[in-house]
């Protein structure tokens, strides 16, 4: 099995910054895309940012220019640097990874447990 463990959430004032981390461990043969999603109360889960194994990134329009996603392939870890945070960024943030668990060409979707980010004065 594969586990994704997130860290770095918390309470921050508007305009502040936070850095989320997500480390993947377990039966990992390879990792394709890694990303961050978020879900605010009474809203659907949405993509925040995603980075492929080839380092191609894409972002939700609402976070472009403020958030930066990166990954360390040697550590199977993805990061989300969040700057200029706004109250509307408040949500539970979930890490996601598309993982190959053996030499067979099968890829599986894994999720972290979520970390709360609250932006409030």
The largest β sheet comes out as:
7 strands, mixed
- Which structural class best describes the helix and strand composition? mainly beta
Low-pLDDT runs of 5+ residues are none
Tell me the β content.
Answer: over 45%
Q: What Rg do the Cα atoms give?
A: 14 Å
Q: SSE order, as H and E?
A: EEEEEEEEEEE
Fraction of helical residues: under 10%
Please report the number of helical segments: 0
Cα distance spanning the termini: 40 Å
- Mean pLDDT over the residues: 96
Number of strands: 11
General shape: elongated
Detailed description of the structure:
With 121 residues, the chain is an all-beta fold. It has strands at residues 2-7, 10-12, 18-26, 30-39, 46-51, 57-59, 67-72, 77-82, 91-100, 107-111, 115-119. The protein contains no helices and eleven strands. The strands form two sheets. Strands 2, 4, 5, 6, 9, 10 and 11 form a seven-stranded mixed beta sheet that branches. A hairpin with a 4-residue loop joins strand 7 (67-72) and strand 8 (77-82). The model has no long low-confidence stretch (mean pLDDT 96).
Brief summary of the model shown:
This protein is 0% helix and 57% strand. It is mainly beta and 121 residues long.
Write the layout of secondary structure elements.
Elements: E1 2-7, E2 10-12, E3 18-26, E4 30-39, E5 46-51, E6 57-59, E7 67-72, E8 77-82, E9 91-100, E10 107-111, E11 115-119
Parallel strand pairs: 2-11
Antiparallel strand pairs: 1-3, 3-8, 4-5, 4-9, 5-6, 7-8, 9-10, 9-11
């Amino acid at each position: 099995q594969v586990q994704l463990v997130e860290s770095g959430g918390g309470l921050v004032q508007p305009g502040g910054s936070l850095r989320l981390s997500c480390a993947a461990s377990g039966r990992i043969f390879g990792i394709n895309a890694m990303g961050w999603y978020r879900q605010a109360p009474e809203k659907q889960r949405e993509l925040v940012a995603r980075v492929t194994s080839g380092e191609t990134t894409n972002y939700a329009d609402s976070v472009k220019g403020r958030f930066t996603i990166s990954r360390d392939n040697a550590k199977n870890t993805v990061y989300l640097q969040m700057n200029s945070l706004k109250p509307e960024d408040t949500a539970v943030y979930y890490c996601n990874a598309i993982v190959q668990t053996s030499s067979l060409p099968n890829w599986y979707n894994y999720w972290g447990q979520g970390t709360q980010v609250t932006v409030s004065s």
